[in-house]
């Protein structure tokens, strides 16, 4: 049997991707005034347009959804116009681009919240994690528990941001259901002690994520909606006592909604792939559309995974930071450049748009 490679096209719904290599969402904290992506962002993403699909950095759906300084939004006309420059620049180069839609929930700081308010969460449990604010890392603020009556507004913020994404020229949206942010805070019982319809059982804890997904699907279509999850990751200081049945249920429900892809961070985000026991094949069986795997992939591991049928697409995060032409380098066996950890969050062109491509 001929071996499949990452360098073949893949049909993501009706969208044809040039290859199976996806750029994972990467927060870079460089938005300009009004949390508008700047000109450099258009250059940065266009440089990486040879990825089969780019998923942008996490982008807040409202002012309340912000948890780190200088992260972009998608809820004002200026932000839509800023993103339009990014999507145009990527499309001119023949690339495809989804925006990752984000609400941080309790992973925030009063200095970033409208009116200096407390960040919101399923329950008033402070996360053991830090956010980037006032040009440094600081402990998150004490959150307040959301009233049930506030949840429709949050669902609608995601829906409206998805509509704005299409207006900004995106090919689709990824709902950020991973890494300890709001939607995962509802899903994982370490952050959710609610006793209403959004807490307790597996079905109740999945409710907000699934309501958001359904609202986004209704707004922009299932073919333009993906969801990212991280079943066993403790990113954002979060824990779950029952990830396997919880995420088996979520995969089934998302499959029923017909979303175009499920994006799964395997293991600890940016850490060990085997951080905790989990049967990812169980998600793969339950979700029939495109399955996108991430975390610690090399060309070899991804190619093996593809040929074993473990996933259809593979997302690379850190390697895309220092290698704008990652696809070409993987294809030709060229050496990979290392990223500079000092220039990840905030700043200008240095460590952002100045990593060279081999071809120049
Ligand atoms: C600088 C940086 C920023 C990140 N920002 C995001 C983000 O905005 N949204 C998200 O879901 N994951 C984010 N991640 C996690 C990556 O998408 C990815 O899951 C992680 O780096 C593991 O993949 P890799 O081993 O290919 O790097 C970020 C990671 C890094 C290193």
Explain this structure to me?
This protein is α/β, with parallel strands linked by helices and 360 residues long. It has one domain: Aldolase class I (TIM Barrel). 31% of the residues lie in helices and 17% in strands. The protein contains ten helices and 14 strands. It has helices at residues 39-47, 77-92, 151-167, 182-187, 202-220, 243-257, 280-286, 299-307, 318-322, 326-332, and strands at residues 10-12, 15-17, 21-23, 53-60, 97-102, 120-121, 130-133, 136-139, 144-145, 172-177, 225-229, 261-265, 290-294, 313-316. The strands form four sheets. The chain has an eight-stranded parallel barrel with strand order 3-4-5-10-11-12-13-14. Strands 1-2 form a two-stranded antiparallel ribbon. A two-stranded parallel ribbon has the order 6-9. Strand 12 (261-265), helix 7 and strand 13 (290-294) form a beta-alpha-beta unit. The radius of gyration is 19 Å and the shape is globular. The protein starts with 9 loop residues before the first strand and ends in a 28-residue tail after the last helix. Bound molecules: flavin mononucleotide (FMN).
């Amino acid at each position: 049997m001929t071996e499949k490679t990452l360098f073949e096209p893949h049909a993501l719904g009706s969208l044809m991707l040039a290859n199976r290599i996806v750029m994972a969402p990467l927060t870079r904290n460089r938005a300009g005034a009004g949390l508008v992506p700047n000109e450099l962002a258009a250059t940065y993403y266009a440089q990486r347009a040879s990825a089969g699909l780019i998923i942008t950095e996490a982008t807040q759906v409202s002012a309340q959804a912000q948890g780190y300084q200088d992260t972009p939004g998608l809820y004002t006309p200026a932000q839509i116009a800023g993103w339009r420059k990014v999507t145009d620049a990527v499309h001119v180069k023949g690339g495809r681009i989804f925006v990752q839609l984000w609400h941080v929930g309790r992973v925030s700081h009063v200095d970033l919240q409208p009116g200096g308010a407390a960040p919101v969460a399923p329950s008033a449990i402070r996360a053991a994690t830090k956010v980037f604010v006032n040009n440094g890392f600081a402990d998150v603020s004490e959150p307040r528990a959301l009233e049930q009556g506030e949840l429709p507004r949050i669902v609608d913020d995601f829906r409206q941001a998805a509509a704005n994404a299409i207006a900004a020229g995106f090919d689709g949206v990824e709902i950020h259901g991973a890494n300890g942010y709001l939607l995962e805070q509802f899903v994982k019982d370490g952050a959710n002690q609610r006793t209403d319809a959004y807490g307790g059982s597996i079905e109740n804890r999945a409710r907000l994520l699934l309501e958001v997904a359904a609202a986004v699907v209704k707004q922009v279509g299932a073919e333009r909606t993906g969801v990212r999850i991280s079943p066993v990751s403790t990113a954002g200081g979060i824990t779950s006592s029952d990830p396997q049945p919880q995420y088996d249920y979520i995969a089934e429900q998302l499959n029923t909604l017909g979303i175009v892809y499920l994006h799964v961070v395997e293991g600890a985000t940016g850490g060990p792939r085997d951080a905790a026991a989990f049967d990812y094949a169980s998600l793969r069986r339950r979700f029939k559309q495109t399955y996108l795997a991430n975390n610690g992939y090399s060309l070899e591991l991804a190619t093996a995974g593809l040929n074993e049928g473990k996933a259809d697409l593979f997302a690379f995060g850190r390697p895309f930071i220092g290698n704008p032409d990652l696809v070409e380098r993987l294809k030709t066996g060229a050496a990979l450049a290392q990223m500079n950890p000092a220039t990840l969050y905030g700043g200008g062109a240095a460590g952002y748009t100045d990593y060279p491509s081999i071809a120049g």
